[in-house]
Amino acid sequence: xxxxxxxxxxSFAIGLALVGTVAFCAVFADLLAPFDPVKNNxxxxxxxPNEAHWLGTDRFGRDVLSRILYGARVSLRIGLMVVVASGxxxxxxGLAAGWWPKVxxxxxxxxxxxxxxxxILLAIALAVTLGPSEMTAVVALxxxxxxxxxxxxxxxxxxxxxQDYVEAARAVGVRTGRILRKHILPATMxxxxxxxxxxxxxxxxxxxxxSFVGVGPPxxxxxxxxxxxxxxxxxxxxxxxxxxxxxxxAMIVLGLNLLGDxxxxxxxxxxxxxxx
Amino acid sequence: xxxxxxxxxxAAVPVLFVVSLISFGLTLLVPGDIAAEMAGPSxxxxxxxxxxxxxxxxxxxxERMLHWYGGLLQGDLGRSILLNQSVGSAIxxxxxxxxxxAGIALLLATLVGVxxxxxxxxxxxxxxxxxxxxxxxxxxxxxxxxxxxxLIWVLAVKLQWLPSGGWIPxxxxxxxxxxxxxxxxxxxxxxxxxxxxxxxxxxxxxxANSDFIRTARAKGLAEPRVFARHVLTAxxxxxxxxxxxxxxxxxxxxxxxxxxxxxxxxxxxxxxxxLRRDWPVIQGGLLLTxxxxxxxxxxxxxxxxxxxxxxRESR
Lengths: 276, 315
What we know:
- The complex is a heterodimer.
- Chain A is mainly α.
- Chain A has helices spanning 3-7, 10-27, 29-32, 64-99, 101-116, 119-130, 134-161, 164-171, 176-213, 224-232, 239-267.
- In chain A, α9 (176-213) runs parallel beside α10 (224-232) and α9 (176-213) runs antiparallel to α11.
- By secondary structure, chain B is an all-alpha fold.
- Chain B has one domain: MetI-like fold.
- Chain B has 14 helices and two strands, in the order ααααββαααααααααα.
- Chain B has helices spanning 2-29, 34-39, 45-55, 61-73, 87-122, 127-141, 144-158, 174-208, 211-218, 223-234, 236-261, 266-275, 279-307, 309-314; strands at residues 79-80, 85-86.
- In chain B, strands 1-2 form a two-stranded antiparallel ribbon.
- In chain B, a hairpin with a 4-residue loop joins β1 and β2 (85-86).
- Chain B is globular, with a radius of gyration of 24 Å.
- Classes of the chains: A mainly alpha, B mainly alpha.
- At the A-B interface, α5, α6, α9, α10 and α11 of A face α1, α6, α7, α8 and α11 of B.
């Protein structure tokens, strides 16, 4: 599927625009942020939104807009790392489970066990076990959400494995490694990509929760969730601190979900009815 | 029928074993000295040692594990050091709040989400479909805790229609209970409505072209009745699957949303324990929520048999 054809799908185009906007702001936060996100200014504490501070200031007089721009960077970075890590780990587990029936039962029981916990609770418990940091958040979310990828990957491998061309390759004696690389993996890329787009969305939301309950990456580099947590105590005097970062999160997550839907419909019409 | 139920119950055993292994194994991963951390910086050596003995941390890991499993089999999840209460009773005391929150949220989500999905399927690719699905997608994309704060600000602070938090038991004051649960359950329902509506739509579209649907139309059934009676019945299994998964997510959501609305549920207990490193409570909370989730999905499995007679024979 070529990119221009993808862009004709409305959900994909809107999703790309939403994610692209936030990603652009996050990447160029250094240039775009009007103020230093961690510099206190006690003369402008809890300042209402005005011409200089478009989204007001927080209880330390820090510019909320600048904090959101840098926060989006942290959230996106963590989300992206979770996407890659869970794609590799979940992908390999799913590949092994789908290809070798001997390990299938064992691997999937472990995945079922991991998925029996509410993902967010498992992530919170892991984050506190390993001690809060950006890397911990990535590890915790990867453990919590890789099983979903593994399950999707296993299904895709099972489908590919049953194809005639795979059977033909096995019949003429192609080595397993080569079959997996040349025939199975390419066939699983479409569902994997769609799944990882949704995982990206889920990871951004879950990271926000980690930060909100206080086990996310520690200050001074706050993610979007941490800014919301920070503004919670001053909700009544200064609601803009807690409310505006949520709009950024919603933009990213809605955008990623739209991207996922668009990709899913475009890459494989048969997948339109699969559960997320 | 009975054989099927037994098979399903047995299949849950290895999952629960993995769940218990993970819940226990967590403490082995803690890098520092658990006892010293729990005792706090001001504790003296004797206090630290006392906690160490209480938690059995002076024993080797394998012995600790056997001891833990031994307790587990007798329904003993250990003791919370901070609450000075057994973990089991601390969780069970608070479970009704969390379960009613997640349950009501799922009920609300189903009551809105399923009809919305059916409407979208009936009007596929028309504006009704796009509006409904856009709404569903937006609902599942909003961070639940943030939505909670937003609602508190609008409905409790500005309009003063509802309390901003706190819990009133149903037995004390049903109206007060409804007012205390309306916002948190509404937030969770808005999140869960999305997947349900999306699944209902796609499952309904899948069966909408079947012969028996055409027959139903041919014999002159009105369109709403076709959808309510025939399409919904045929699409019930995938919808139930999503409802089962949604319950797990709603449970996780309930744990978080309890922080926002100050509800005295399992989430407040466990996340409080997380912040104060009360390991027995963290382990017990993980174990029990997973247990509830497995039980709910077992019930969902059995409901399949009820809604789809074909499954009773084929397996």
